[in-house]
Design brief:
single chain, about 240 residues, 2 domains, about 0% strand, globular
Length: about 240
Amino acid sequence: MTDVATLWSYLAATPLTWLTLTVVCYLCAAKLSEVLGHTPLANPVLWSVIGVAALLTLTGEDYPTYFEGAQFIHFLLGPATVSLAVPLYDNFESIRRLAAPLTVALLAGSVVAIGSTILLAQAFGLSDTLILSLSPKSTTAPVAIGVSEAAGGSPSITAVLVIVTGVIGAIIVTPMMNVLGVRDWRARGFAVGVAAHGIGTARAFQVHPTAGAYAGVGMALNALMTAFLVPLLVALLL
């Protein structure tokens, strides 16, 4: 046991250890999702988060040490955000033809996501800091964290809430759309992209390529809309 503890102490101090374990957790979760036919409850992000949390609990490692080793994944959020321009470019002509309905859907989705969050949080008596941290939860993590920090919220809380929102959206989007009778892959994809950012977009790509493309468009446009609307709605409602 002493040798095992010594070995773990050495590995825990190695920067690549937690990065490697995080990637392994995700690959295992992705394989599980594939084996189960990509069922919503087998969402890879959800189970990789649970796996990493279990490892941290079992090893007694603190989060700052974990983040120091796995921060390269955090760094990749920046390039991933920039890459949101790709689906916009690839679908430019289609988007141009549907500019009016997409604009209405985007505005409605963004206003409802932010406004309902602020009003519900106020109704439950949450603090202003929590409300400001909650308000950008439906947009992609780098934008949400930046908006939260600028507004006076807690970026750490926002990051957790963004992931929770994305996972919930990815789990419920397919059964919900089926129940509502929405058959247009463009509408299905755009809706989940606006509501559940990157995690929802990944789920949309699993279901249908057109849904995935429009989810990417919705995610990109909602990032811009959220950055504009959060300060405005916070000033009006908070």
